[in-house]
């Protein structure tokens, strides 16, 4: 909606008028949204006029979903016609859509406004195109794959029009989608088939291509040649035929299959599938008797696999003997220098080729490679042995697989009756690599005392085996001590030290290090508790103030002999004037029970001025403490709010004078804290200063008159809540925090200023301002509802 009001020219009406116009945008291109809009230029022109009544450019944010427009124009009558033209500009400043000119009527009666449709036509790059052509050939995709299609617009001469906006869409969403209509990226769907993809210009011309989609392969099936039987080392009598299929059970083309035999050879070992999704290969079995396998994997989609099995038959071995590699010694988790070698023989003592030997680690957590081996032409089989990570005994059992029965399954565990031999070896600890905590961490004790348990650490190799003879150094930076500072690890890898805590209560740390071991120092923690109460001390000091005004809060702590606060104490702490240069009297609560070791004194005051006052804090039989010197100054005509708590202006107990301030007083409300002072009676003051250093204070004026003769300052911590009543007088009122004006009146001959950094919020229709007063707003804020002038 456009709002129009009269201007200052002589032809305008004498009373301001507000005119209303409503427009509804309509785009003649279904895909107008693919063109970025950065600004709108709006023009209003009276019929026959040579100049524009309004000609304005409005920036549109790239993230905006709507734009509110308010225009001001001089009105000559209650209703008036204008010619409206709207240009939509892209980020380069070029006009891409044009609406109008068309006639609109502005009226002062919003109920009579009828929206006028503004049809936007595309006038940007390519608006003169004769057609569009897709340049990318029809691609083939698997589900989830994407392809970028390229298209171009051309003119009547067939020449390309670069940078023409093109809308992309899929006509078969189950087969393919186009996530961004302004780009040509197509993502294949999960169904199989050909999807039609269109490229459309904003002027309506279109071209179509197709994208072929097939699901990704999920499995490889054996069609023929599986489960055959042949002698070891010979080719299977029939070729093996495999078919690659998707989850829908249909064949998949355009992929390659890799073949891997557990024993023997295959030919070919890799091949592309034919037009029916099939691949064929020949398999020559290996020398291991039993079940052998070929694993088929789709190269492009490795999770799609299949397995073919065949059975190899040979003369079984009946005996096994150790040849070499027994009784070795080595460092834990490292390979022995010599392999383990066995000899397999048949019942007549002849070496057997092709016998399967299974190697099993039976003691410790070592490993062998390979775990299954086949005897060579001389009957020998071997493996490499890596010792376990624990120091001590290691054992490996070598067994003939299938020697005790007729089963040729080389993958089965050997039966108890299968011939076997056992190799033994000894593992020794490696070099020291780790320093770790065993005990003594997270203890509690009083400051300056030895902890109940020593700190115990251990040096080990990388696998946790204890290492002796390593020097460990203990240290602390908290004023405590460790004994010994240096210790050598025993056969168990252990070293220890006794920790005496430092004098500061709270968390303390100690470290253990060993030269030659990398990494950060090993850190142990302890909590030191304070010792018994020994003294009181001013944790924060009383500060200078005015006579009769509250001394800023200060804290006295109950401490032990090391100066640590003793949180468990409940001692009562008293304060009294020690040095009394003005012969003053200390008023307020002078004895406070400590909470968590701290006694906080609030609201104390001294009634007589003087330079160099001091206070003494006592809590018998503890040692006392004397504060730093501070001054009490006198203020003529000054009245102070004496306690940081809520209260009414009329309550005399809240004021240092014992009665509410009078017209000649300077009023000070400067207590720190969170509290509200409510003006519950009419009041006249010479001057007023309100605001603490910390906290949040509120001056509430719900319905009475405050007259300021000289000046009033509300600091940055103060919120002035004017909901009723009146602020008047010749004085200046400065608001440096917040002013919330929901009712009441500003009047008088003075000035009300909202300073920089402050906020002015005007809400409610009853806020009233008389022009005898000046209002200056240098801050921020909102006028939410009109007041009365």
Question: Which labels suit this protein?
Answer:
789 residues, mainly beta, ten-stranded parallel sheet, seven-stranded parallel sheet, 0% helix, flat, disordered N terminus, disordered C terminus
Describe this protein's structure:
It is a single chain. The protein is an all-beta fold and 789 residues long. 0% of the residues lie in helices and 48% in strands. Strands 57, 59, 61, 63, 65, 66, 68, 69, 71 and 72 form a ten-stranded parallel β-sheet that branches. The chain has a seven-stranded parallel β-sheet with strand order 58-60-62-64-67-70-73, with no helix packed on it. A six-stranded mixed β-sheet has the order 3-8-7-6-4-5, with no helix packed on it. The protein is flat.
Mean pLDDT across all amino acids: 88
**Overall shape:** flat
DSSP strand content: over 45%
Report the biggest beta sheet as strand number plus sense, adding barrel if it closes: 10 strands, parallel
Find the count of extended strands (DSSP E, 2+ residues).
73
Residue ranges: pLDDT <50 for 5 or more in a row? 1-14, 404-416, 784-789
In short:
With 789 residues, this protein is an all-beta fold. It is 0% helix and 48% strand.
Layout: helices, strands, pairs:
Elements: E1 2-5, E2 18-21, E3 23-27, E4 39-45, E5 54-59, E6 79-89, E7 95-107, E8 116-122, E9 131-134, E10 140-142, E11 146-148, E12 151-154, E13 160-161, E14 166-170, E15 176-177, E16 185-188, E17 193-201, E18 206-214, E19 217-224, E20 228-231, E21 240-246, E22 256-261, E23 265-267, E24 270-272, E25 278-284, E26 290-298, E27 305-313, E28 319-324, E29 328-331, E30 340-345, E31 356-363, E32 367-369, E33 372-374, E34 380-386, E35 392-400, E36 420-428, E37 434-439, E38 443-446, E39 455-460, E40 471-476, E41 481-483, E42 486-488, E43 494-500, E44 506-513, E45 522-529, E46 535-538, E47 545-546, E48 554-559, E49 572-579, E50 586-587, E51 591-593, E52 598-601, E53 605-606, E54 610-618, E55 625-626, E56 630-633, E57 638-640, E58 647-648, E59 666-669, E60 675-678, E61 683-690, E62 697-701, E63 705-714, E64 718-722, E65 726-728, E66 732-735, E67 738-741, E68 745-746, E69 751-754, E70 759-762, E71 768-769, E72 774-777, E73 780-783
Parallel strand pairs: 3-8, 10-18, 20-27, 29-36, 38-45, 47-56, 57-59, 58-60, 59-61, 60-62, 61-63, 62-64, 63-65, 63-66, 64-67, 65-68, 66-69, 67-70, 68-71, 69-72, 70-73
Antiparallel strand pairs: 1-2, 4-5, 4-6, 6-7, 7-8, 9-12, 11-16, 12-13, 14-17, 15-16, 17-18, 19-21, 21-25, 22-24, 22-26, 23-25, 26-27, 28-30, 30-34, 31-33, 31-35, 32-34, 35-36, 37-39, 39-43, 40-42, 40-44, 41-43, 44-45, 46-48, 48-52, 49-51, 49-54, 50-53, 54-55, 54-56
